[in-house]
């Protein structure tokens, strides 16, 4: 699943060149995944662990699927057939390990690359990363970065627990407020963080099919994340603000001739959020999401999370944010 600015057509820089792809993980035969909430955290930084359990596959073996049962076949027989459980390969203890999963996928890509026709004309260079698989593809003067993230879907919803911290998926954090941990290295290898990137992408795709000029809202987002970069507000903050404005301003008013008015609407919405020190999370607690976006039952009815909670707790951060807004307005 393509996620982030490159796939949503609002790259923060003139050419970001980073394509982030979320690969949903499903348990192999004989295994099940169980999500365990480890930290509710602050401001949408919920952390999960993925517990792996072995399940009996004897009935499937009787149906001629030729599956060895990790629970009821001997280790000697499993060893002869070179069958190893996920607990032995990609887990630490009973929990799926992010770093082991990334290394496993890296080895798969590396060993498979020469079988791909594009390998004759494109050069593949891997980038060091412990919690995702990152590589650069180059062909003459052309180059692009690909980052493969791994995730487990929460039920049948559009919410995943993923290998990278949420802020790392979206872009750099604000200089004065961040809703997510800054360093991926400080997170345990068995920790998977909740991500709303797929739900946000589905919302933008939904909007694109309804606005009179499908690119105006993305042009607004590009103005704030590209032209007005360096003003202290993160790309994830701008994306959240723009999505809220899309939900409040009638879609019929997003025409090219009203482009400047919509820019001021976005500025006005940000000013109100800064004044009350509250920017609500767009997915969690939002009762106005389109029906096509599915949330886990446990998240329905939750109070909207405040992404500006740090501003409410830290007067110095709030003053800095107001100064940044004043500079932004001047620019």
UniProtKB/TrEMBL annotation:
It is found in: Membrane. It comes from the Eukaryota. GO terms for cellular component: membrane. Keywords: Membrane, Signal, Transmembrane, Transmembrane helix. It is a single-pass type I membrane protein. Pfam families: Mab-21_C (PF20266). Residues 232-282 form the Mab-21-like HhH/H2TH-like domain. InterPro entries: ITPRIP-like (IPR026250), Mab-21_HhH/H2TH-like (IPR046906), MAB21L/cGLR (IPR024810). PANTHER family: CELL FATE DETERMINING PROTEIN MAB21-RELATED (PTHR10656), INOSITOL 1,4,5-TRISPHOSPHATE RECEPTOR-INTERACTING PROTEIN-LIKE 1 (PTHR10656:SF40). Belongs to the ITPRIP family. This is IPIL1 protein. The gene is Itpripl1_5.
